[in-house]
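Re: the request from the purification team.
They wanted to know what the chain is likely to look like in 3D before they choose a buffer screen. I agreed to run a prediction and write the result into the notebook, where they can find it.
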Amino acid sequence: YAADSKAAVFEDVEVNREDFSESMQEKFDQSLELDARLDQSMRQYLGDVYSVDENVGRVLKAIDELGIRENTIVVYSSDHGPAPVKLGKQGEREYSKNMLGYAGQFRGGKHNQLEGGVRVPFIVRWPGKVGAGRVDAESVTSFIDWMPTLAAIAGIENLPEQLDGEDISDIWFGETRDRTKPLFWKTSSSNATTTIRDGKWKMHEEGRREPAQLYDLSVDPQERNNLAEELPDVAAKLQASIDEWKSQLPSAYVKKENKKKDRE
């Protein structure tokens, strides 16, 4: 929830729903169910983002004032896409009406593996090393790449043989290339389904309520045209990769029953 002074910066903002993609309309409807003042809910959201922006600015200013700008790698990112207004069985939470983060053309957001949930901002600042103002919309990278990438930059060669991530320092420095390892997403539940991205292909494996979904992200980043039945050979190959990856995972997960109590 943004302070009133932050939200007030956007007091002239009015939501025009036609400016937003189809995937955003459900969030607007749910926000309106909780509070008819949609413009104010959006102002609160923007005020919250503005507050984050100001604090990032303070960190960058401190780095500059300390004289370590040229020797400091600053990475800014998000661990998932925008949160939903209403969350499954949990429904609404405090300030749900203000959760109006937007994933653009992409479907989904936090708590699912659609592009709106896993395709996130990633900004690197390293003056003199990472080109300022460059946007790479082609290379596919992941958080699991950070450790091998920073190790490579630091000249550390003695790394574990089996790493999920890969060194992408060349991409940071301006190269554009295909990824060498596929990416997998799965929640920490033995019964959860897995999603894989390998090159242009992305597949959500079959679940209890959903059929397998195969998408060509090079032409269908919105994940609208399911090709699983049309391209069974591709789907089978990706499923084999999923099965091999899952065979390395724990057969059961231990979850804390009351996280709040543990924190206390």
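For the purification team: Residues 38-65 form the longest helix (28 residues).
Please add any questions underneath this entry.
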